[in-house]
Amino acid sequence: MSPHLQIWRWHVTMATSILHRVTGCGLYLGGLIVAAWAISLAAGPEAYATFKALLGSPLGKVVMFGMSLSLFYHLGNGIRHLVWDFGHGLDIKSANASAWTVFGFTVAATLATWAIAFQIGAL
Amino acid sequence: MSYRTPLSTARGLGSAKHGVGHWISERVAAVALVPLVIWGAYSTILLARMDYYEAVEWIRSPVNATLMVLSIGIGFMHMQSGLRVVIEDYVYSHLNKAACLLANLFVSGLAGALAIMSILKVALGGG
Fold first, then answer.
1. pTM
2. How far apart are CA B40 and CA B45, in angstroms?
3. Between A24, A41, A123, which is nearest B118 by CB?
4. What ranges do the domains of chain A cover?
5. Minimal Cα–Cα distance from A7 to chain B, Å?
6. Interface contact A31-B79, CB threshold 8 A
7. Does residue B52 come out as left (phi exceeding 0), alpha (psi in the -120 to 50 range) or beta?
8. For domain B29-123, which architecture applies?
9. Is ipTM beyond 0.85?
10. Of B51, B76, B84, B125, which residue is most buried, by most CB within 10 angstroms?
């Protein structure tokens, strides 16, 4: 293992980088869930009911909550990466500030989505 | 004058000359996914309260079918290229790396194609 992992103090930009990969890998599973949705819809009412029952179960809701957190994190941090690709915000102060902005956006967007879902009776 | 020996020139054949195009196409997919993913999250909570017949009706709308096909197509391309970078970074053995890269390509290609064909089947009236 590289020594830098043991001697470096944890900082927020390090966490955002690692989380971008972790959430990206998690969302790979999310993509497969979307594919399963489409396939079960094409398979007919019974298969679709089974799919909906799985996602609507307590475990399914926990998975979907994780997916929504991952999605909004990866979305926010992805935009941060796109801004960096244009050469902006690369200094340490801006990178730290944008990291915390992404965390704030992730929590706010996830909670708002679940609040709207609850309000329209989707849960 | 060049300081490179003939051997170093022969060994290091230089870049493949298409790295920039690949890099840009990854970013273009990412930019396209920003609105698609927001629409996708909104659609997910709409679909969560629909039954089968309402969902079929929903996907028969050309706008919904088009956006769903685009989301899945571009999303699976993005998933494939993202996981590819992770595999290239962490899998060292040449054979394992090749196997992982192929599995990534085939799984994302198959799942994406199945999903798009399923949506077209329902949207075009077969469902």
1. 0.90
2. 9
3. A41
4. 4-119
5. 21
6. yes
7. alpha
8. Up-down Bundle (1.20)
9. yes
10. B76
